[in-house]
Amino acid sequence: MGKATGFMEIEREETIERDPNERIKDWKEYSTPFSDDMMKRQGARCMDCGTPFCHIGMEIDGATSGCPVYNLIPEWNDLVYKEQWKEALDRLLKTNNFPEFTGRVCPAPCEGSCTVAISEPAVAIKNIEQAIIDKGFEEGWITPRIPQIRTGKKIAIIGSGPAGLAAADQLNQAGHTVTVYEKADRAGGLLTYGIPNMKLDKDVVARRVKLLEDEGVNFIVNTEIGKDVTGDELKNSNDAVILCTGAQKHRNLPIEGREAKGIHYAMDYLTISTKNLLDKKINNEGLDAAGKDVIVIGGGDTGADCIATALRQGAKSITQFGKHPQLPVKRGSENMWPAYPQVFSLEYAHKEAKAKFGEDVRQYSIQTKKFVMDENGELESLHTIEMKKTRDENGIFVFEEIPGTEKVWPAQLVFIAIGFEGAEDAIIKEFSVSATSKKIDAEYGDFRTNVDGVFAAGDSRRGQSLIVWAINEGREVAHQVDGYLMGESALPSVVNA
Ligand SMILES: Cc1cc2nc3c(=O)[nH]c(=O)nc-3n(C[C@H](O)[C@H](O)[C@H](O)COP(=O)(O)OP(=O)(O)OC[C@H]3O[C@@H](n4cnc5c(N)ncnc54)[C@H](O)[C@@H]3O)c2cc1C
Ligand code: SF4
């Protein structure tokens, strides 16, 4: 149980980050490796509270609370405290296929519901998770596990994001022949093209894809299902098909002047920037922020990733617009433990922007009204107005414009980062699967679509979410598909236990 009195004696230690002014000169990960001693101290803080809310993995008030893959957190905290790293790794891999991803970029809903966090800063769970898996790779404890028996059943997975990879891993280990199809030129989904390199090094993603390949999973990249291969071809040549195609249909901002040159979707920008980095190209295909006034519309993490990318390209100025007011420093009475803490924080990108420009670049409670372009159609400025967030007579939040707060912002480059509508129409049509509000209809825990033999998991089913939920769905859909093919399944499942 860690050290009995550890939570009273030892303080939380945060991720050690590289100097923001230095790290914006390169694209390497912004955090530094942890020492074993530091992790041992943090493991000692786990109080083994008896009812560990840290791994409840459920939605409270629309936000995730506790770990969605139900990681055995108190167990590996204790093992790290006792320096039994190999045993800690075995425990971790029981529930999480890819802790090297979640340990780096999960927003750690486990920490918001950690019992220590009722009165003190939470146990540094996410850092411990990363330290365990990184040590596993460093020590050579992670080697290909090649299935000894093959069932002869063939499964096609469309999409190589965390949902597709987790499903592929589980089903391959069950002895099925798994092929993952990916339309991009590299596997990984948003782990590769979406999340920037400074948050998640692409070598870490490639290492895992290589390991899966060595274990027998087939990857076919540069192949779009519905264009290069039809859905019928896949259905006819496989015993089951799983749609793990994500929810990357852009949400647009169709206001006056939207056609101006210089306005781009955040995802296009992040994808091109990472592709150029990996292909070692200097030219950013017209999407270079160097010397420009950049505005990011959307206050979320995708917007923050655009800030970090534009900083590294040498933007002249950067501003991020958010519709919502600034969050409070401490939990409000409507946001009590163990719900995810809705509190103000400076993300890595915001720290970097503050170091570079001397202030937080976020503007809150603001709405863009129109874009203005010059005679050549090039974006020149944005017009905004401030908003007031109130509740209507039914208690629903509504936004009202505040007259007299109009403002004009010079900008040559704008990134739209206001979320995603859901799954792409093309894949829904190709398989004739039914969908509601752009989410493929397939009940959680069952994952069957209306088409026999076709399953859906991850963001394509759930809507844009988190890596850890995608891993959860990949594991759970694998259990269901295995049962569909074999009559029953020995693969782990929490929902169908
Ligand atoms: C910019 C950004 C940053 C994010 N940062 C974080 C973060 O820090 N932490 C976190 O937990 N979550 C983050 N998320 C969310 C997280 O990345 C997603 O929830 C997760 O990747 C969903 O996994 P998935 O496997 O369902 O889909 P995806 O990762 O979206 O993968 C779907 C894959 O399917 C492929 N595909 C689609 N259609 C076809 C087709 N017809 N043929 C072949 N291939 C196809 C796509 O090319 C893609 O590679 C972020 C999201 C974005 C956009
Ligand atoms: S996967 Fe996320 S929620 Fe689960 S233990 Fe790791 S950081 Fe916490």
TrEMBL record:
One BP term from GO:
glutamate biosynthetic process
**This protein's pathway:** Amino-acid biosynthesis
What Gene3D superfamilies does the record tag this protein with? Alpha-helical ferredoxin (1.10.1060.10), FAD/NAD(P)-binding domain (3.50.50.60)
Q: Which domain of life is it from?
A: Bacteria
Q: Name one Pfam family in it.
A: Fer4_20
Start and end of every FAD/NAD(P)-binding domain?
154-474
Assigned keywords, A-Z: Amino-acid biosynthesis, Glutamate biosynthesis, Oxidoreductase
State the Gene Ontology terms under molecular function: iron-sulfur cluster binding; oxidoreductase activity, acting on the CH-NH2 group of donors, NAD or NADP as acceptor
Entry-linked SUPFAM superfamilies: alpha-helical ferredoxin, Nucleotide-binding domain
Q: Does the keyword Protein transport apply?
A: no
* Domain Dihydroprymidine dehydrogenase as annotated: residue spans: 23-140
Q: Entry's InterPro entries?
A: DPD_II, FAD/NAD-bd_sf, FAD/NAD-binding_dom, Glut_synth_ssu1, Glutamate_Synthase, Helical_ferredxn
Protein name per its UniProtKB record = Glutamate synthase (NADPH) small subunit
Species of the source: Saliterribacillus persicus
Specify the taxonomic lineage: Bacteria, Bacillati, Bacillota, Bacilli, Bacillales
